[in-house]
Design a protein that fits this description.
Length: 138
């Protein structure tokens, strides 16, 4: 079962109405996320807006967060009273015991995106004029 399938099952269990919005592009032979960052979009009863979910394995969550933060459309999605969540899935459990799939959820907000932005480099300034050479004594 893929991370997307696990997230779909979880969202349905929570009472949400999810749909897969990631598409296969046969010409480019790649999967393309909705708005460049979403695999699933879900509507949750009692919540304003929709939630966009990026599903992956836990080890890829940092990469997915960087991808979302670099995508300008993510800010537009959030500004429209929607939410973004990264679902990271991994098999975990005590040594010698049966491992079960566990979820690590990362909520992406405007504040998270702002914290991950790289500061813009300072504008280059005019170099200071070279000091004039002092006159030599005869």
């Amino acid at each position: 079962m893929s991370p997307t399938a696990r997230s779909l099952a979880l969202l349905r269990k929570r009472g949400a109405v999810p749909g897969v919005v990631e598409r296969w592009n046969p010409g480019a032979r790649v999967r393309q996320d909705f708005l460049g960052f979403a695999d699933i979009v879900a509507v949750e009863p009692g919540r304003v807006g929709s939630v966009a979910v990026q599903a992956c394995v836990t080890g890829d969550q940092a990469k997915r967060l960087a991808k979302i933060c670099a995508e300008a459309r993510a800010r537009t999605w959030l500004a429209a009273a929607n939410r973004i969540v990264i679902h990271g899935w991994a098999k975990r459990g005590p040594r010698g015991k049966r491992k079960t799939w566990t979820l690590s959820e990362t909520v992406v907000t405007e504040e998270v995106i702002a914290m991950t932005e790289q500061p813009k480099p300072a504008e280059p300034t005019e170099p200071a004029p070279a000091p004039s050479p002092e006159p030599q004594a005869p």
